[in-house]
Amino acid sequence: MSVVATVPSVRHTIIVEAPREHAFEVFTHGIDTWWFRDHSIGTEPLKEVVMEPREGGRVFERGLHGAECDWGRVLVWEPPSRLVVAWQIGGDWQFDPDLAHASEYEVRFIEEAPARTRVEFEHRHFERHGEASRDIRDSVDRGWPKLLAAYAGVAKTG
Amino acid sequence: MAIFERLERGPLPVGEIARGLPVTRSAVSQHLKVLKDVGLVTSQRAANRQIYRIDADGVAGLRDYFDRFWQESLQSFKRAAEKSFKEKSR
């Protein structure tokens, strides 16, 4: 039994009206098509988000002038059913290469019908960010500030 | 997890938190220290002992942030996946 202190996970389940192969493909290879443009920590304006399609693959952003900034690493690559990615952005909004300081998210793609996929998402082990967790909380407004406004706009116009 | 769950029911001294757990009291103290460092738990001295409680702002704030962050991002993913599938099957 583990009594290690942990912070409860964040969990979400959504239904995607598409086959799970397609859903997996869009989530990974197509990450740039759905990632909010303001979710960026690089010094240059965001050009694209890339997830390398293999275990150990990098997840990173590429800036307008080519500078790359790592975000995390693929820990489990099991297309089309399962994906685990290390979240290596610390509370100072910098990449932290030490996996012991990384939280992680897992995505499961479950076929409900030939063109309907249930996507179960869990982001866990926030406590691994350690001291940084407090900073993550405190720097929400400084980190990706335009996100909420942008989303509110999209949601309103449908 | 066990420590956190106990504190969710209310503030407790370390002895009460450790009661019934299959680890030593000093191990529980160490875990509490980690939780304190991370800003998830606070403590207060009362009647000559430390009483631990969940730092509601810390926990709620951290989880709320990621909860919202992923809720929005997953909706965006859903829209992109369904749109591209529709276009593909045309």
Write up this protein.
The complex is a heterodimer of chains A (158) and B (90). Chain A is α+β, with helices and mostly antiparallel strands and 158 residues long. Chain A has one domain: Alpha-D-Glucose-1,6-Bisphosphate, Chain A, domain 4 (2-Layer Sandwich), CATH 3.30.530. Chain A is built from 5 helices and 7 strands, in the order βααββββββααα. In chain A, β4 and β5 (82-87) form a beta hairpin. The longest helix of chain A has 12 residues, at 146-157. Chain B has 2 domains: 1-54, Arc Repressor Mutant, subunit A (Orthogonal Bundle), CATH 1.10.10; 56-90. The termini of chain B are far apart. Chain B is built from 4 helices and 3 strands. Chain B is α+β, with helices and mostly antiparallel strands. Classes of the chains: A alpha+beta (158), B alpha+beta (90). The A-B interface holds A 1-8, 10, 12, 14-19, 22-23, 26-27, 30, 33-36, 39, 105, 115, 119, 121, 123, 126-127, 129-131, 133-134, 136-137, 140, 144, 147-148, 151 and B 1-4, 21-23, 27-28, 31-32, 34-35, 37-40, 58-59, 61-63, 65-82, 84-85, 88.
Secondary structure elements and their pairing?
The complex is a heterodimer of chains A (158) and B (90).
Chain A: E1 10-16, H1 20-28, H2 31-34, E2 46-51, E3 58-63, E4 68-78, E5 82-87, E6 103-113, E7 116-124, H3 132-138, H4 140-143, H5 146-157
Antiparallel strand pairs in A: 1-7, 2-3, 3-4, 4-5, 5-6, 6-7
Chain B: H1 2-8, E1 12-13, H2 14-18, H3 25-38, E2 41-46, E3 49-54, H4 56-88
